[in-house]
Amino acid sequence: MYEKWKTAFLTISTLFLTFSLVLHPQAALQASIRGLNIWWEVVFPSLLPFFIIAELLISIGVVKFIGVILEPLMRPLFRVPGIGGFVWAMGMASGFPAGAKLSARLR
């Protein structure tokens, strides 16, 4: 019974949003442009330096050195290698996307 209501609600919501976009394309276009401007002026400039710095630190070997230093702390406390300290610090400083990217890169 719950699944039927959930499916009906999602269908009605999707149809409502679709009709709203069709009936008011100018408002949808303006909102899209505003969202892209916010991304370009706020998100991109704030994350780009973290991505560049992280890649530089990884490529010159600083991250492995930090991993060796942090190994005695990270392994007993969090059960992760010492490199996890660098990933954690960069993730906290720049947010989830950078932490996820670094976790995948240093795996």
UniProtKB/TrEMBL annotation:
Asked if the record carries the keyword Transferase, the reply is: no
Q: Write out the transmembrane intervals.
A: 47-70, 77-98
According to the entry, every stretch annotated as the Nucleoside transporter/FeoB GTPase Gate domain falls at 42-103
Keywords for the protein's UniProt record, in alphabetical order:
Membrane, Transmembrane, Transmembrane helix
Please give the InterPro entries that the UniProt record associates with this protein.
Gate_dom
Identification of the protein by name: Sporulation integral membrane protein YlbJ
Q: Species lineage, top-down? A: Bacteria, Bacillati, Bacillota, Bacilli, Bacillales
